[in-house]
Specification:
Elements (H helix, E strand, L loop, with lengths): L1 H39 L5 H15 L2 H9 L8 H24 L5 E10 L4 E10 L2 E12 L2 E9 L2 E2 H14 L5 H20 L1
Antiparallel strand pairs: 1-2, 2-3, 3-4, 4-5
Helix pairs in contact: 1-2, 2-4, 3-4, 3-5, 4-6
Length: about 200
């Protein structure tokens, strides 16, 4: 009897967690398909295609929170205007990175497979398998709900966190300007311009 009580309790508590994960999964599929549609639509000029992708990413990634985390100790010493400029530049940098990454997968098939809900951190973990002729790669999306809508807070490719990788990458660049965020913004502008030109060519 005790065993069946435990099973019932587990079942009851697992229902809302699965619902959260399934809702996040359905939302994520819609947003991924928007990006892939932009790449697969040959009638769209390259610039329009990227702007559509950038808008989708900016609307659905927790860009400001990720930007602040990635800036590390340089954040506290910066002025409000510098921070706002940095967030805008970081969001474009993030969009360019993800657009470039997804470009290689735009003609592949994908499937959202496992979904898990991390109750402690209130985060849905959604695995995506991308298939090609030579094999498959797994991407894990970390999705969180805030104010009745979902946001992507991280992306793991082969178990490597995009956010952690960006923090390490930016820290190396920030060192060259003594963690001065205003000077760093100038570097980020140049890097974004270069990435943008490569993406359109």
């Amino acid at each position: 009897m005790q065993f069946f009580r435990i099973l019932i309790i587990i079942f009851i508590f697992s229902i809302p967690l699965n619902v959260f994960a399934d809702e996040a999964k359905n939302w994520l599929k819609t947003e991924i398909d928007k990006i892939l549609y932009a790449y697969q639509n040959n009638d769209l000029p390259s610039e329009n295609r990227f702007l559509m992708i950038e808008q989708t990413i900016n609307n659905n990634f927790a860009g400001s929170g990720i930007a602040k985390f990635v800036a590390g100790k340089s954040w506290n010493g910066a002025s409000k205007d510098t921070k706002l400029e940095y967030i805008k530049l970081f969001k474009r940098h993030l969009a360019l990175n993800i657009a470039s990454m997804m470009q290689g997968y735009s003609n592949q098939n994908y499937e959202l497979t496992n979904t898990n809900y991390d109750e402690k951190n209130k985060v849905s973990l959604i695995d995506m398998d991308i298939y090609s002729d030579t094999g498959s790669i797994q991407v894990t999306w970390r999705v969180k709900k805030s104010k009745d809508r979902y946001f992507v807070i991280d992306l793991l490719v082969a178990d490597i966190s995009l956010v952690v990788t960006k923090r390490s990458e930016f820290n190396s660049m920030l060192k060259t300007v003594d963690y001065n965020l205003e000077k760093f913004n100038e570097k980020l502008i140049a890097q974004n311009d270069l990435s943008y030109s490569k993406l359109l060519n």
